[in-house]
Design a protein that fits this description.
This protein is an alpha/beta fold. It is 34% helix and 19% strand. It has 3 domains: 1-50; 67-164, GMP Synthetase, Chain A, domain 3; 166-414, Metallo-beta-lactamase, Chain A (4-Layer Sandwich). The protein is elongated. The protein starts with a helix and ends in a 6-residue tail after the last strand. The structure holds zinc ion.
Length: 420
């Protein structure tokens, strides 16, 4: 406990909020056996040496520093936060942490950038106290803050109005494997582009996960499916039921290989008999096999690539060319195959399944980290993001042993701007 008191005093001094003499006097008062036992902050407060805001701010800072994963707890007045445009914060890897009187403690990737510090000072009117953090940590924390659900807890709903939706925005609604290892949702990737919003695959929990993430299901225009395993299509009937109950009138499409669409139609019928026979909106079943196909009503094109996964039914990976001139690709489930090289080529983002750390038996037909490492030079993508992660991948990723980025549920990527 003593250490914590000392740290409290140390922080007050580093922030120049308390003189060494005042702290020494307060420590002496604390050590006086004639005085009641008191926390140093209470003594400083009682003697008018610090304000309540300073005490609370420094305590919040100590809490934050104890664990960098708590970077996103932001006890800062919204009016101060509003002065830092989210786009500026993200582009410069800047994350305000806490406010102590007129000091703003900010996590920064580049603490020695004088122009950046000057700009922050000007924007906020505060004295900036920079704490060095890795850009990746700041980005991860910013992504938590920008998550609408958590932003509202932090009183930061405004951030979504302030953050320009340049996009395309890719949100991992489900980044787990077939058995939700690590309590992650099964596969579902949400794509928001200028002219279309759709899901790629739709695992069983996708509808509730979308709602938790604040992604309105009614805004979807369709679902693109890679293959006929339940962890990739099990959530389709619920997403469709949501459209029916919401009184949808606009068309809704489901695209995938013909045998996959057939399975999904059977599954819909089992889940809600006859409900989707004559839905109140046009339900389009769009087959894709070898030829590219446009997403209805848009200029976005889907290019299919045959993958190696399910033996009896086709499994496709997709390149999707979006209006913003960005190309995203997703492998679905697959073993290593030469088509992965073609799928990855010239993409802005390659979302790649990675079920295991070490290669699996051939019959399992899933990818491993070791295989991806061996083929890394062949995957010509600007950003590789692993998903569909099994236990060993999660464990090793948590220990920092994975050289590629790993998705997590709720992660949103804005392809219009990057921190790299
Ligand atoms: Zn599968």
């Amino acid at each position: 406990m003593r250490q914590r008191y000392l740290k409290f005093g140390e922080w007050l001094q580093r922030l120049e909020l308390l003189s060494a003499a005042d702290l020494a006097a307060a420590l002496q008062t604390q050590a006086d056996p004639a005085q009641p036992a008191r926390y140093i902050g209470e003594i400083l407060l009682a003697e008018g040496l610090i304000s309540e805001a300073v005490r609370d701010g420094v305590l919040a800072l100590q809490k934050l520093l104890g664990d960098s994963t708590r970077l996103a707890e932001m006890p800062i007045a919204p009016e101060v936060l509003r002065k830092i445009p989210p786009r500026f914060a993200r582009d410069n890897a800047v994350l305000p942490l806490t406010q102590i009187a007129d000091h703003l403690v900010v996590a920064l990737a580049q603490t020695d950038s004088e122009p950046l510090l000057a700009e922050l000072t000007e924007l906020t009117g505060c004295r900036i106290y920079p704490l060095p953090y890795r850009a990746a940590d700041i980005l991860a924390a910013a992504q938590v803050v920008y998550d609408p659900r958590r932003a509202s807890q932090a009183g930061m709903e405004w951030i979504h109005e302030a953050l320009p939706m340049d996009g395309p925005l890719i949100t991992f609604v489900g980044s787990g494997d077939a058995v939700s290892t690590g309590a992650r949702n099964q596969t579902c990737i949400h794509v928001r582009s200028e002219e279309c919003t759709f899901l790629i695959d739709c695992g069983p929990a996708s509808l509730s996960a979308m709602k938790q993430l604040g992604l309105p299901p009614q805004q979807l225009q369709g679902i693109l499916l890679t293959h006929a395993h339940g962890d990739h299509f099990g959530g389709v009937p619920y997403v469709l039921l949501e459209q029916v109950l919401a009184g949808r009138s606009a068309p809704f499409w489901v695209m995938g290989p013909a045998p996959v669409l057939e399975r999904v139609q059977q599954w819909n019928e089992l889940a809600f008999p006859k409900l989707f026979d004559q839905p109140p909106f046009e339900l389009l079943w769009l087959e894709i096999e070898q030829e590219p196909r446009a997403l209805p009503g848009t200029g976005a094109m889907v290019y299919p690539f045959a993958m190696h996964h399910q033996r009896s039914l086709p499994c496709l990976g997709y390149q999707i060319h979006l209006a913003e001139e960005k190309i995203i690709a997703y492998t679905g489930d697959t073993a290593w195959c030469d088509n992965l090289v073609l799928l990855a080529r010239d993409t802005d983002l390659l979302i790649c399944e990675c079920s295991a750390y070490e290669p699996l038996p051939e019959a399992v037909r899933h990818l491993s980290y070791q295989e991806l490492l061996a083929h890394q030079a062949e995957l010509k993508t600007r950003q590789l993001m692993l998903t569909h992660l099994g236990q060993e991948m999660l464990t090793r990723a948590a220990q920092g042993e994975i050289a590629f980025e790993c998705a997590f549920d709720g992660l949103t990527l804005d392809l219009s701007s990057r921190l790299d």
